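User: Hi! I have a protein structure encoded as tokens and I'd like to know what sequence might fold into it. I'm fairly new to this, so please keep things simple.
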């Protein structure tokens, strides 16, 4: 049974109650049977991007429960699922002449040093001015197409306010090969972060399931139900003054906001991250200099940077490794937190 809860300019919400004859089946198939106006492939994407919530009740349009992001999840009779369908994106992003810091380019791929503030892919609220818009203008006819459409292949993403290295495919063969490397966890990805406090132990692993926060669907969290397994290996590189640490994070998995969620879960949020508790609090302000406090306050981004990216070139087989140091604003932040600044 399907009920339309709400429709507005940005999002349509449906409530589906699982019938007895659908029990034991896959979630994507059960939802496709209940929502004939939507394809199963579309529903699978919605599930994987955290738009499906298993809930016990819906009161005055408000929902609570666990986000289910596995299309093969086996449903039970009487379960209620809320499906939030975002506004459809335009079919083709527009090319825009936006400068790119390109570290490597050939006929098959590019490696870009993305600045903080640049969104990778067009989405509601960011239709233009993204890295994809810039790539369409830069690459032009050198894009032979991904999935039959002349567009750049985004294999992995960086958050808007995270800087650093990202690889982009120009054709299907390269896109499929790099995607397989990511799935096999052979891609080398090293991030550097400035976090609040001193990590104990100074090195180790953070593992657990990450899913949509049951309290706020726009945030991710470590969850007991649902979600996907995540693993980050971390190492403290430097204690920065009395209040912060420079940490190296190596990703074994690539979940949304993984490092930010893991560091917060440990009690050491990334400095400057307003979503996961990295703001300047009175207690933190008391531990650092006025100059360092001003640097944190005015940072305008989380202190997280994709510092190293390594992979096998899909065509040549060569092992490629790229490194990029902290941008100037993060270097200055480290100096001021260390007490080395003016």
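Assistant: Happy to help. Inverse folding works backwards from shape to sequence: for each of the 342 positions I chose a residue that suits the local structure. Here it is:
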């Amino acid at each position: 049974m399907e009920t339309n809860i709400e429709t507005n300019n940005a999002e349509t919400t449906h409530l589906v109650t699982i019938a007895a004859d659908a029990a034991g089946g896959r979630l994507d198939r059960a939802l496709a049977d209940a929502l004939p106006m939507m394809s199963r492939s579309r529903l699978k994407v919605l599930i994987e991007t955290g738009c499906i919530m298993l809930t016990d009740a819906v009161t005055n349009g408000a929902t609570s429960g666990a986000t289910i992001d596995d299309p093969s999840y086996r449903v039970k009779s009487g379960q209620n699922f809320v499906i939030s369908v975002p506004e459809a994106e335009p079919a083709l992003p527009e090319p825009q002449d936006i400068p790119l810091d390109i570290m490597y380019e050939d006929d098959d791929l590019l490696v870009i040093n993305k600045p903080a503030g640049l969104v990778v892919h067009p989405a509601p609220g960011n239709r233009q001015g993204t890295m994809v818009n810039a790539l369409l203008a830069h690459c032009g006819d050198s894009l032979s197409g991904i999935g039959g459409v002349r567009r750049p292949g985004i294999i992995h993403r960086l958050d808007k306010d995270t800087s650093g290295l990202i690889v982009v495919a120009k054709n299907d063969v390269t896109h499929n090969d790099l995607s397989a490397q990511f799935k096999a966890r052979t891609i080398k990805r090293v991030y550097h972060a400035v976090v609040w406090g001193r990590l104990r132990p100074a090195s180790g692993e953070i593992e657990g399931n990450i899913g949509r926060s049951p309290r706020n669907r726009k945030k991710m969290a470590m969850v007991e139900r649902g979600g996907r397994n995540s693993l980050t290996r971390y190492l403290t590189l430097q204690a920065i003054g009395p209040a912060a640490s420079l940490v190296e994070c190596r990703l074994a998995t690539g979940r949304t906001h993984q490092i930010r969620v893991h560091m917060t879960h440990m009690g050491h949020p990334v400095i400057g991250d307003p979503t996961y508790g990295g703001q300047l609090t009175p207690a933190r302000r008391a531990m650092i200099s006025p100059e360092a406090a001003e640097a944190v306050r005015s940072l305008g981004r989380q202190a997280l940077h994709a510092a190293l990216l390594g992979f096998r070139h899909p065509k040549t087989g060569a092992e490629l490794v790229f490194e990029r140091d902290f941008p100037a604003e993060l270097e200055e932040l480290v100096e001021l937190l260390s007490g080395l600044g003016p």
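A useful reference point when you look it over: The chain is about 20% helix and 30% strand. Feel free to ask if any position seems puzzling.
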